[in-house]
Write a structure and sequence with these properties.
The complex is a heterodimer of chains A (182) and B (172). By secondary structure, chain A is an all-alpha fold. In chain A, 79% of the residues lie in helices and 0% in strands. The longest helix of chain B is centred in the last third of the chain and has 29 residues. Chain B is 77% helix and 0% strand. Chain B starts with a helix and ends with a helix. With 172 residues, chain B is mostly helical. Chain B has 8 helices and no strands. Classes of the chains: A mainly alpha (182), B mainly alpha (172). Chains A and B meet through helix 1, helix 2, helix 3, helix 4 and helix 5 of A and helix 3, helix 4, helix 5, helix 6 and helix 7 of B.
Chain lengths: 182, 172
Amino acid sequence: MPAPTLRRLTGVFFRIGNTTFGGGLPTIAALQRELVEQHEWLSPEDYALAFSLARITPGTNVIAFCAAAGARIMGLRGALAGVLAETAPSAVLAVLMTQGYETWRTNAWVMAGVGGTIAAVAAMMWASIWYLVRPYLKSGANAFRAVAITLGAFAAVWKFGLGPVTVIGIAVVVGLLWKEPE
Amino acid sequence: MNLFLLYLLLFKAVITSFSGMASLPVVRHDFVVTRHVLTDRQLNAAIVAGQTGPGPNGLYLVSVGYFAAGLPGAFAGLIALITPAFLIIPLMSWIGKYANIPRIRGAIRAVILASAGLLMAASIPLARDAATGPVAIAIFIAGFLVLVFTRIATWWVMVGAAVVGLGVKLLS
């Protein structure tokens, strides 16, 4: 794996942050695939820490995630690079869209391209779920714990309407009380 | 509008919220109701512009800043949006010290798994929205298989999907 450099790190945040539609979670999922799975610059544990703390940091979660992930990989300059590469180009685009939003919304070509990307974003999120759970499915006892926590979190949101911060809070308590099998 | 005041108002909205769009009630109160800097129509336009493109949800604040004070206002909006994110760095370094204790590690791993569950819950409506026809479903399935079974970068999958969307439009 190539070692992280400021240029490479900025490139990853720039590419993912400015081509992923659908908001924070798809972007975090794409960053997880690049930073944890492909480049191995961020450990799964650091990813989890960044993900969970981003939820309780004021403001937009994905920006806090970029700051945390960038800082973990390359310190403060990594954090600055991550946050600026993630937000500045999209901010320029947002200004352009603000100036001409009536025009592009009715442009069938733009919407055709965006439509294809949205389908790919949905696929990427499901792939990311697989990547997150897969390492914990290797042994039977661990797999049971992993599947129970994953599906429990899903049900907490989907069936009982709990917010993400509450679900993460519950996961922390469950993780502390339910010891991982040796 | 004074840029520093603009920054402070937008910063206040961001620092008191915990997700991209949660700042909206504060923004509307300050900019539309109290100070009449924006109309509701402009605020809606800002939200549409910020939400439809790529990037984080809170980007609508850049558009709000643009409506309030032109390009310098957009810059103030961007700075207000990103400033609170840096609070996570001391938080992470403080909690990270305890990450190797087995029970803490177990809790962190539980958060990884819970984040997969959260992604699952967020993915279902997104997949429903994305499945607009056979082409979109084919892109979804092909994208999933490529991402799981190859090491092709996510960005190329996104570009490929956009090209397929445009190609189908060209042929129809």
